Amino acid sequence: MDFREVMESAKKIEGFKCRVCGQCNGKVCKGEIPGVGGKGSGSGFIRNFDKLNDIKLNMDTIYAAEKVDTSIELFGKKFQFPIFAAPIGGLVACYGEKLTDYEYSKAIVDGCKEAGIVGFTGDGVKDEFFLNPVKAIEENGGWGIPTIKPWRKDEVIERLRAAEKAGVAAVAMDIDAAGLAILAMAGKPVSPKSVEELKEIIGATHLPFIIKGIMTVKGALKALEAGAYGIVISNHGGRVLDHTPATVEVLPEIVKAVQGRMKIFIDGGIRTGLDVLKVLALGADGVLIGRPYAVAAYGGGAEGVAAYTKKLGAELAEGMVMTGCNSLKDIHEDIIFKG
């Protein structure tokens, strides 16, 4: 199965809310929440894609070539690519009834493991939206990273214990979900967190803790102060605040401010291996990708997820060859066209 077959299969799903566009750029689905679009005008989602697409690469094929190494070590584990499936929860409301959160997460974590990477899983209004994905991770030998919404501290810690029991390598919080419209409509108590609250939460677990939803230097430094292992530069796919900058626009200044003191991941509009190469050149350690992984899971299950991952990895490797990079350590800003 290749990704074209996966997309064709997804298009045939009755009631599937994603249109499976040729370019997943947010323009057709703007404002569709619940659904897969960006909030309001949809500009956050659209800008993520467009600004990344505007970046061009310098070609260089005069160098001492070696076997291309796309691998990376994180959380004490080695992964085949610096690419990870982003967390998505509440699947029925946003994508349709074909897959439950457990079935979706099972496809994600199994397919990612097959392709040599790891998938993040989601959370939602009902406890089962977190616990069922964690069950899928536990069944997969702990190979997955659960993501917790910014609930009350006691509820967050309860979820941390479930993650620890499942033997996961790390855990995340998508802190920007404090403004997620679907949760607000459901009356679920989520809220922003202070540095002190985050310190308490991070201090309550031995697991590496990733804070997702950082869009400013100020926010990154607060996450660093709180003791985060890493951050995900993310505007939640443009789903929580309209008229945000693109994630790739704020990446360089955050990288400069953090100075290697914690890991930096990024999501938002990343669709190809060349997109991955671009953000690595601008200083990211790895990427998260959301909507296309949902299409992969719905259209092809674990096999579709693995196929999409391998496609991305092959594109990244090819891009590295054509820009003079034998390994991820060779990827620097000088491969980005400045004209």
From TrEMBL:
One of its GO terms (molecular function) is isomerase activity. Signal peptide: none annotated. InterPro entries: Aldolase_TIM, Alpha-hydoxy_acid_DH_FMN, FMN-dep_DH, FMN_HAD. CDD domains: alpha_hydroxyacid_oxid_FMN. It catalyses: (S)-lactate + O2 = pyruvate + H2O2. Glyoxylate binds at R239. This is L-lactate oxidase. Keywords: Flavoprotein, FMN, Isomerase, Oxidoreductase. Residues 37-339 form the FMN hydroxy acid dehydrogenase domain. Belongs to the FMN-dependent alpha-hydroxy acid dehydrogenase family. FMN binds at K212, S234, H236, D267, G268, G269, I270, R271, G290, R291. The active site is at H236 (proton acceptor). Pfam families: FMN_dh. Its cofactor is FMN.
